[in-house]
Amino acid sequence: xxxxxxxxxxxxxxxxxxxxxxxxxxxxxxxxxxxxxxxxxxxxxxxxxxxxxxxxxxxxxxxxxxxxxxxxxxxxxxxxxxxxxxxxxxxxxxxxxxxxxxxxxxxxxxxxxxxxxxxxxxxxxxxxxxxxxxxxxxxxxxxxxxxxxxxxxxxxxxxxxxxxxxxxxxxxxxxxxxxxxxxxxxxxxxxxxxxxxxxxxxxxxxxxxxxxxxxxxxxxxxxxxxxxxxxxxxxxxxxxxxxxxxxxxxxxxxxxxxxxxxxxxxxxxxxxxxxxxxxxxxxxxxxxxxxxxxxxxxxxxxxxxxxxxxxxxxxxxxxxxxxxxxxxxxxxxxxxxxxxxxxxxxxxxxxxxxxxxxxxxxxxxxxxxxxxxxxxxxxxxxxxxxxxxxxxxxxxxxxxxxxxxxxxxxxxx
Length: 413
Hints:
Helices cover about 25% and strands about 25% of the residues. The chain is an alpha/beta fold.
């Protein structure tokens, strides 16, 4: 992470609005990402601490969902005792939440405001310094930006239509900084029904001076479960990241799962890896008999040291009669989120003579990836036979074994 610049920043004239009202649907079920742990502290607490540590900060307004105000206070812990920190209820849209934060931040002694995403926990002090310097230099608005290093393609209907010149493109980050009075005025003038994705949009009128400062890779936005592991790995424990130096980047856990079901007397299809496959026989089971998903669940539970599928979904419970095993894997993924764990990779092997797995392998990978909220490139599905040996070789049933690799990026909840 870049070291802090030596700039003259007059004290206590900046308000920070930290938007933490989102549900984070791409993160999957479970605790909202802003309240999950990373490096022993909640994501929200890291973002708040960055502004508490800066001498220009006069007020910090956390904007949370109306039903999550207590959760936000709990997430920041003893930081709530700082007299600059306050928590207010947000609105249905991001711009409504920002407006609520602006109303709480409005004060004659404050002339600058920074709008920051709670899901960007590691904010270097240098970025805050640079933004203040740009506003003091006469800009109307400022934001950190990273260059686009990949070749950018224009894709239409899954086909490449053109190559875009990346020289003039940038990846926008937060915080975005403005003069407080001007931002309030532009929010108030926003036409009814018009939606904006960020506050810089209010200044993209061709006349306002919007300047950029160098962003930071450690300012990445947490969007998917695997992002926790990626961000934690980027922060070297001996560097100047705002985390305890003695804490390791993360610890890797692996778990193994195994399951088997015999064929019953009924006709197929059979469900494997979340996909229905045509077959002349069905699997006998209390649920839908998906040995692939069951093995994956046990692999995840094993990595978490969190029991097994039978302890969470006992076959004696009638609620799970004929249940779709997708909800079991969804639950396993949510347990990862609650424990501050990111699923890095899942490896599933199906053992049977029939049905043939190959034609359905990618559909299974896609379904599993969707259920746990990771990219399909992190899911492997393989198949093998037992060379006509044993119960699988005789065609009496199907077995599955799985391995899950997790990164424990935060403390268990």
